[in-house]
Design goal:
By secondary structure, the protein is mainly α. It is 73% helix and 0% strand.
Length: 500
């Protein structure tokens, strides 16, 4: 009996570290291709715009997997789904690591994208198995880790690539994902007691078709011709699928993504800003990694190695973690309605710095540090805004949808960077004109400025007390605000949690 009690206590203590590790591993693996894009293009003899798909395809699959797994895992299948997703990621990591060529690499990267769907499942697991205050701080920590984890593995990955080739870095991904699978087997609790919920298969198929079609239009527009019948036809079909999907989601009782929550202006603000922050984040990440590794003779290229490129992205992760700690202090003095637009302005500042000054490595370090602060502030604010604005039983669904939009922004930013640089690449050349980086940065500035305006205007007048804001430091105030007055206390059954 004492052995069983000791085992239960051990598993409870290990739950939070394991959940954080799962999200960190998925964040690292999802963006593993970013510093390796020039290396992949050279090794597999493909254009840089095609090599960019080694990042985009992972984010695209993640955007579809997040609501799908969130809905399927909103019941007794949660633990099996976590283990299945980690197994798929492990298989994909091995496939990418083997030297089979560009096609299998893209297929493996797509399988790795399934791991991004673990985010709503880890949030639901934390809410169901931890005390209220600790679950709130854990949710905020998981939200920050999805951003901070992007740059944590880059320096080590670059070092492995320099010494053993880029396939070895993907073997590193296979190793850490294998450790994640074993950890989950021993620690993640069972959910057999939860009631199953309906799954919107039609909505999942339509959503995947919409995202794939629109990203294909964005990334292949220059190659196909922006006015080509094939591209226009694909765009029209994608928009038609989008209209059908929206109508379908609004009509059924258990949708894949509950679009009705967008009627809440605070939730709508958090979702729009999450989408734009994700777009700006990956747009800048892709631009910085490509510029850093471009040959010095290419105009503005810095000729950096993969190791140095990985180090350039490290300040982004550090800035994100610092932002999680700084947000409560700033919001105490300015309120979240002022802090959110200011966070968007910090991202805008990083875009401006990149547009105006990118001739040295130290400037790229500065750009990524500033970007980390801005993006980290945005993603630290979002959980508190959403939780304070919806009923307790709707938090999982609202957070899941925000996560979906975040991944949509990631995938769009990745594809958009390749499109802009490709449009500034002369026929027969492999490297873009230096003006392409400036054009992409200006576009990013316009997007961030629009986001700041939305954050300042969309919420409208204040109608309730300011929410307490998220924080990731232990022993500090709750990570998400107390449930608004009149809402039911959080249920321990998992109902309505972790949904897309």
């Amino acid at each position: 009996m004492s052995t069983d009690i000791a085992e239960t206590v051990w598993r409870r203590r290990a739950l939070v570290p394991v959940l954080v590790y799962l999200i960190a591993v998925m964040a690292v693996i999802s963006s593993l291709g970013s510093p390796l894009i020039p290396t992949i293009a050279a090794a597999d003899h493909v254009p840089l715009s095609d090599a960019q798909w080694s990042v985009t395809i992972t984010l695209l699959v993640g955007a579809v997997a997040t609501p799908t797994m969130g809905r399927l895992g909103d019941g007794p299948l949660r633990r099996p789904l976590i283990l299945l997703a980690l197994s798929v990621v492990l298989v994909g990591s091995v496939l990418v690591a083997l030297p089979f060529g560009f096609g299998p690499l893209i297929a493996g990267r797509a399988l790795q994208g399934v791991g991004l769907g673990l985010s709503p499942l880890t949030i639901s697991t934390a809410r169901d198995n931890l005390p209220a205050d600790r679950s709130r701080s854990t949710i905020a920590l998981l939200s920050i880790t999805t951003v901070a984890g992007v740059g944590l593995g880059y320096p080590l990955t670059g070092l492995i690539t320099e010494g053993f080739g880029y396939h070895a870095s993907f073997w590193f991904g296979a190793l850490v994902s294998g450790v994640a699978l074993v950890s989950a087997v021993f620690v993640v609790p069972r959910t057999r007691h939860l009631a199953p919920r309906p799954f919107d298969g039609v909505g999942a198929v339509l959503f995947g078709a919409v995202l794939a079609g629109l990203l294909l239009v964005l990334s292949e527009g220059r190659a196909w011709g922006w006015t080509s019948p094939a591209l226009i036809g694909l765009l029209v079909a994608s928009l038609a699928c989008l209209a059908v999907w929206v109508r379908h989601e609004l009509r059924i009782g258990q949708p894949l993504v509950d679009l009705r929550k967008l009627r809440n202006r605070v939730v709508l603000t958090a979702d729009v800003i999450g989408l734009v922050a994700g777009l700006g984040m990956y747009l800048l990440l892709s631009l910085v990694t490509r510029l850093a590794q471009a040959p010095v003779g290419a105009g503005q290229g810095l000729g950096a190695s993969v190791v140095v490129t990985g180090l350039i992205l490290l300040p982004f992760s550090v800035g994100s973690l610092l932002a999680g700690r700084a947000v409560p202090w700033v919001a105490d003095r300015l309120s979240w309605r002022s802090t959110l637009p200011l966070s968007c302005c910090v991202i805008l500042l990083s875009m401006l710095l990149f547009a105006l000054s990118r001739s040295g490595l130290w400037e790229l370090f500065l750009v990524m540090g500033v970007a980390g602060l801005g993006v980290g502030c945005v993603f630290a604010l979002v959980p508190g805004l959403i939780v304070n604005s919806v009923a307790a039983q709707e938090v999982g669904s609202a957070m899941g949808f925000n996560q979906v939009l975040r991944y949509v922004g990631f995938a769009t930013g990745s594809a958009l960077s390749a499109t802009v640089l490709a449009s500034h690449t002369a026929t027969g050349q492999t490297l873009p004109d230096p003006s392409g980086y400036g054009a992409a940065a200006v576009l990013g500035c316009l997007i961030c400025a629009a986001a700041a305006a939305v954050a300042a205007v969309l919420p409208g007048r204040r109608r309730r007390p300011e929410p307490e804001l998220p924080v990731v430091a232990a022993g500090r105030r709750p990570a998400v605000p107390p449930v608004r007055q009149g809402a039911e206390p959080p249920a321990k059954t998992g109902q309505g949690q972790g949904r897309g």
